[in-house]
């Protein structure tokens, strides 16, 4: 097992480099970089200055000097910006410098926030962890008992109508389900039961401990439900199919022949084998809930997390923040893949990854 883990750890670096190279290459062809973003922000100010200096027709109409003044950024200033942002260097050199810094976990500063990238990520991380963790736990607490019940009553009316509900839940995109929840329960058109924005109230600091817990749960209810809807459907069907595969195997039939009750057979023999794939997939399920729908859900509910931060960074073309968060997310995804394999071994020590080829 040690050699297998070592191989997986060594593969992290080239995989990360490949991920970053593909995304870095794509950004070279995307119009509207940070220089253009700054130019767009100051364009209105340039128009004002041009009007103060004499107006369009009296200053020479469409002359190059007037255009530069109206644009607000003379060529010298643009060159200074390119030098400051590093765009005066070839793309290959910029990529190599970036990866060298990232391998040392030096992500630099955000161009538009003026703050360290790592500080921004750490500041927004708790909100995204909240969505991912509670969504995953909610999915497991509901999906596992429901999946077991569906396996026991396979083909019954209960199995049929719950399958219909599950398929509907899987088919509805998380952001669309979030909008539906807002319309129904957050004052959109019907009932105003839950708040629409943020994870806490304005007077959160003044509340008692129990009051803070209730306020937090009250605000987090709709975002967590919206995030967990697709994972809930997948996990329920996975649990059901896992139990169906194990219920009729020889060891289960032997246990029944010895006179054990169905409940004892189910939870004393079948449960461990059937839950192997479900429990071992917890790290990947959490990561999927953590990153999967966070951008849209955080924007819809105005949650100041990594999803909203990444969206704003993409809009502003804040490349240090975009690539810094991408590097962190990619690294976490690769590590979680290794943790998933280790979880398989912990749940069932009979599994041996060393015997696999490659």
UniProtKB/TrEMBL annotation:
It is found in: Cell membrane. InterPro entries: MetI-like (IPR000515), MetI-like_sf (IPR035906). It comes from the Bacteria. Keywords: Cell membrane, Membrane, Transmembrane, Transmembrane helix, Transport. GO terms for cellular component: plasma membrane. GO terms for biological process: microcin transport; transmembrane transport. It is a multi-pass membrane protein. It holds the Pfam family BPD_transp_1. SUPFAM superfamilies: MetI-like. Residues 125-340 form the ABC transmembrane type-1 domain. Its main location: membrane. The chain crosses the membrane at residues 9-26, 125-146, 167-191, 216-239, 274-301, 321-347. Gene3D superfamilies: MetI-like. Belongs to the binding-protein-dependent transport system permease family. This is Microcin C ABC transporter permease YejB. It comes from Paracoccus alkanivorans.
């Amino acid at each position: 097992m040690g050699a297998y883990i070592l191989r997986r750890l060594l593969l992290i670096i080239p995989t990360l480099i490949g991920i970053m190279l593909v995304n870095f290459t794509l950004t070279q062809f995307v119009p509207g970089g940070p220089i253009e973003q700054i130019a767009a922000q100051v364009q209105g100010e340039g128009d004002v200055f041009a009007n103060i200096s004499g107006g369009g027709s009296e200053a020479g109409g469409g002359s190059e000097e007037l255009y530069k003044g109206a644009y607000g950024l003379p060529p010298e200033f643009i060159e200074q910006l390119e030098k400051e942002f590093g765009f005066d260097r070839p793309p290959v050199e910029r990529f190599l410098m970036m990866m060298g810094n990232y391998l040392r976990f030096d992500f630099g500063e955000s161009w538009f926030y003026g703050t360290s990238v790592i500080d921004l990520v750490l500041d927004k991380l708790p909100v995204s962890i909240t969505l991912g963790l509670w969504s995953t736990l909610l999915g497991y607490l509901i999906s596992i008992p429901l999946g077991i019940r569906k396996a026991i009553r396979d083909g019954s009316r209960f199995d049929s109508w719950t399958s219909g509900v599950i398929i509907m839940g899987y088919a509805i995109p998380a952001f669309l389900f979030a909008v539906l929840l807002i319309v129904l329960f957050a004052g959109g058109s019907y009932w105003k039961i839950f708040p629409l924005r943020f994870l806490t109230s304005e007077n959160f600091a003044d509340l008692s401990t129990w009051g803070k817990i209730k306020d937090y749960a009250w605000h987090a209810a709709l975002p967590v439900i919206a995030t967990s809807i697709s994972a809930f459907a997948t996990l329920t069907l996975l649990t059901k199919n896992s139990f169906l595969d194990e219920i009729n195997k020889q060891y289960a039939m032997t246990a029944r022949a010895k006179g054990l009750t169905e409940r004892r057979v189910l939870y004393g023999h079948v449960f461990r084998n059937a839950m192997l794939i479900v429990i071992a997939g917890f790290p990947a399920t959490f990561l999927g809930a953590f990153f999967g729908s966070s951008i849209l859900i955080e924007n819809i509910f105005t949650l100041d997390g990594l999803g909203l931060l990444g969206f704003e960074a993409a809009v502003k073309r804040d490349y240090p923040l975009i690539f810094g968060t991408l590097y962190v997310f990619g690294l976490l995804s690769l590590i979680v893949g290794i943790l998933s394999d280790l979880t398989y071994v912990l749940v069932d020590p009979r599994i041996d990854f060393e015997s696999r080829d490659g």
